[in-house]
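RECORD TYPE: inverse folding
INPUT: structure tokens
STRUCTURE:
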């Protein structure tokens, strides 16, 4: 059996100019990065604003398991399948982060015959977007320390600097450091830390900005530190917002590539959904919706994280109204949630499927709370049995969700036709009554409590004493009337990664609350979640290499 990278490397790509032409995009509207990648020009985005909006389909999933669910693969395969059915469809995805590429996943561009290409470029440096975000982030950090070193006119409290440096790699050694050592010439010594770039506020700001002027305003609102009187010091106060905007000018433009079947794919921004808001950019989604009849997009990790944030943050700010949601599951994932070890997932076990179905059931219930029709799809494996599939299909339909099988890894667009037909049926016959889960003007603890009870299934929320103080400060600043972005483990509906299925009788512990004034949301850290991941014992980077012919290997 061919690996994902072998399939991608053997594919025949169309010049991106030709792919763009198939959707009415002129060559003059592309800013080329070689033959197979391009950025979409501001002029194109401006002249398509009058086009009607496409139907918007979100793809999400159950909580991830070690068996893998294939959400991005299904997203790409569904778009390919819809195009085979004669529907002008584009896909909008996030950019992969080097953190998981070198850490645990090895790549994030789909799989099998449902991939975006050029796969190696997309998974590695792509068009440099994430590098530019890292640089803009660290420019602000360096200007904070320089301001203090040069006399500290803004009276910044060196013990109350909240802006962290960033790097797009998993590096636990950088979570907490001391900077400024080596004497007065090297600055003022202080405690510092790094976060992974995809969790940074810069990533969120680029993802949520409508245009270059909105971007500059948002960057200027970033709270970098507090002065000795407790007042916020912003990026604009430090006169960093202009240069940061310039660094991100090209980054703000969405990237265009293609799938293996030459379906246009817009890939832009890559926030994680466990520690950030987990969606591709507003510009990418809106542009795709102006260039297609159906736009298929995804949100990261399980529906308790990515989908909730897509609805409550991205849709709220961008005015998007999704028409349907596809919920990806696998028989193997349900068995795992039912207590079966990874080594036994290929054996038929209907009883384990029954026990693990509660996880899928909870996600169906959660998505229905947003008023959007739900289609459950099983990403098919050869080990799946008719009895297991029939049980899941029956339970999904009883829960009010439509159901279809996906075979897009093996068959590409042909394997997505059954799912595509079901999605079209839902788009034609079921009306979306989209609504957000809460009013953003509610008090912070109440908003967090609604998400924790309604989506995670918690009994309640416990706030640490430091979190309570942080909430009080945000309220005093008048920045509490924004949606919340909860950082939580992706592996469980709870904040404890070991609690599988549908946990009961638990509380969520909020240990820290931060305000992202530029992005426009409040970040609440739950449980033991960290914004700088670490590498596993055997990182994927150990397997990535160049072979004797100069080909990249080990990237999957």
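DESIGNED SEQUENCE:
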């Amino acid at each position: 059996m061919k690996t994902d990278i072998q399939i991608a490397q053997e594919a025949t790509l169309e010049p991106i100019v030709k792919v763009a032409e198939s959707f009415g995009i002129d060559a003059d509207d592309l800013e080329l990065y070689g033959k197979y990648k391009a950025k979409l020009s501001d002029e194109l985005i401006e002249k398509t604003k009058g086009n009607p909006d496409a139907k918007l389909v979100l793809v999400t999933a159950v909580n991830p398991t070690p068996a893998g669910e294939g959400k991005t693969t299904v997203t790409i395969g569904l778009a390919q399948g819809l195009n085979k059915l004669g529907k002008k469809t584009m896909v909008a995805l996030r950019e992969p982060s080097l953190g998981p590429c070198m850490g645990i996943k090895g790549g994030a561009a789909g799989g099998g015959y449902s991939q975006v290409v050029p796969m190696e470029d997309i998974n590695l440096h792509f068009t440099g977007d994430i590098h530019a975000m890292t640089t803009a982030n660290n420019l602000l950090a360096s200007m904070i320390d320089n301001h203090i070193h040069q006399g500290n006119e803004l009276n910044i409290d060196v013990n109350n600097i909240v802006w962290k440096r960033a790097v797009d790699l998993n590096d636990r050694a950088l979570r907490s450091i001391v900077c400024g050592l080596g004497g007065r010439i090297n600055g003022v010594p202080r405690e510092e830390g790094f976060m992974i770039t995809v969790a940074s506020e810069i990533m969120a700001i680029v993802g949520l900005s409508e245009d270059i002027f909105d971007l500059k305003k948002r960057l200027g609102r970033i709270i970098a530190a507090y002065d000795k009187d407790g007042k916020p010091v912003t990026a604009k106060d430090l006169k960093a917002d202009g240069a940061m905007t310039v660094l991100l000018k090209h980054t703000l433009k969405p990237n265009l590539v293609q799938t293996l079947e030459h379906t246009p794919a817009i890939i832009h921004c890559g926030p994680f959904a466990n520690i950030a808001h987990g969606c591709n950019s507003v510009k990418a989604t809106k542009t795709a919706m102006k260039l297609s009849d159906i736009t298929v997009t995804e949100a990261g990790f399980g529906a308790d994280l990515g989908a909730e944030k897509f609805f409550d943050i991205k849709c709220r700010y961008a005015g998007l109204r999704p028409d349907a949601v596809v919920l990806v599951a696998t028989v193997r994932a349900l068995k795992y949630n039912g207590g079966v070890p990874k080594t036994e997932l290929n054996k038929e076990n209907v009883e384990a499927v029954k026990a693990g179905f509660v996880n899928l059931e909870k996600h169906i219930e959660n998505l229905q709370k947003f008023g959007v029709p739900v289609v459950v799809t099983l990403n098919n494996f050869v080990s799946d049995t008719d009895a297991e599939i029939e049980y899941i299909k029956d339970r999904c339909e009883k829960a009010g969700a439509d159901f279809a099988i996906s075979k897009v890894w093996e068959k590409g667009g042909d394997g997505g036709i059954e799912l595509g037909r079901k999605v079209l049926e839902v788009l034609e016959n079921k009306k979306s009554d989209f609504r957000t889960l809460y009013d953003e003007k509610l008090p912070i603890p109440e908003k967090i409590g609604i998400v924790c009870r309604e989506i995670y299934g918690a009994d309640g929320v416990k706030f640490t004493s430091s979190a309570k103080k942080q909430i009080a400060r945000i309220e005093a600043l008048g920045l509490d009337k924004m949606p919340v972005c909860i950082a939580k483990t992706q592996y469980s509906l709870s904040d404890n990664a070991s609690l599988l299925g549908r946990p009961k009788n638990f509380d969520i512990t909020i240990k820290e609350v931060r305000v992202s004034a530029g992005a426009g949301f409040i970040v609440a850290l739950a449980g033991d979640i960290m914004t700088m991941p670490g590498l596993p014992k055997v990182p994927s980077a150990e397997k990535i290499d160049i072979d004797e012919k100069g080909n990249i290997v080990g990237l999957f």
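NOTES: The longest strand covers residues 507-516.
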